[in-house]
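Final report, Chapter 2: Outcomes

The project's central promise was a pipeline that accepts a single protein chain and returns its three-dimensional structure in a standardized token representation, suitable for archiving and comparison. That pipeline is now operational. To close this chapter, we reproduce one record exactly as it appears in the project archive, with the input sequence first and the structure output second.
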Amino acid sequence: MSDTSLITHLRHIDVAMPNFAEQRRFYTELWGLTESHGDTGVSFLAAEGSPEQYVVRLREDAHKRTDLIAFGAADVADVDTLAARLMAQGVRLVHEPRAIDTPGGGYAVRFFDNEGRVVEVSADVAPRRHRTIEARESVPVRLSHVLMNSPTPEATVAWYIKYLGFRLSDTLCVGGRGEIMWFLRCNTIHHSFGIVRGPHAAFHHASFELRGVDEFMRGTGRMRRMGIERLWGPGRHRAGDNSFSYFLDRAGNTVEYTTELEVLDEDTWHPHLYDLRDPANADQWGTANEMDEFIAAKSHNDVAPGLFVAPPM
């Protein structure tokens, strides 16, 4: 596989759940996303500051599952090149490159990763009219990053580096217990994707970028006042140097407000290994509640159904 990544950025995360109406209300009325398109049992949710047609797709289903993770490519030729490389390497496709009929259209290939998650890479998607987020406006600017749990994280990290051209930014460990979290990038942003050591393959968390620290704190406070279950934060991570506040959505998925995620110099950056036994590596500010195994377990999420099974849309 070429060392050159054909992936440019993260587009959206698509999830399904039985309590669709409740989830839709959470993300639009509380979390701050805007429904850009919708139909019976499906909702496409945009971030006001992002040109992406949507950053979250909700779909009603009898079972909770992650439908797919979507990334962008520069043009249709890159989608074709990536698909050809994947097929030559024996990666199983969901479908070959073709026109897609989701909002904004475009041209995409879908395939399974090594653990059976569905990944989409698309190009030529029409941008959405978006706007500048104003001071003190605590709604997401964009989807920042998505992390996934894996029972075989070393192999999964290696797969995304080998086949999709991701680069390792930093790794977290816990002393002699070994490495537990890997942050991967496809551009100069510290991470848009990552893998967490977990008991099973599942969604770990999705993070949404706010305008600045003031807007981040206002959003954090709004969630707390509304009684949304808080897992961890507010604080500031060492890896990525970003602020964090983690909550649970109505289906038990972990979602994060963040801001100021680090932008790297590709020519000089070298990955770090941060040991979480030093509390400053988890939270530089020292303001967050203490992380423990019970809080962490909530982000392990439910066992992902439908691995190596394509979503219905």
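Archive annotation: The chain has two domains: 7-123, 142-298.
This record, like all others produced under the grant, will remain available to the consortium after the project formally closes.
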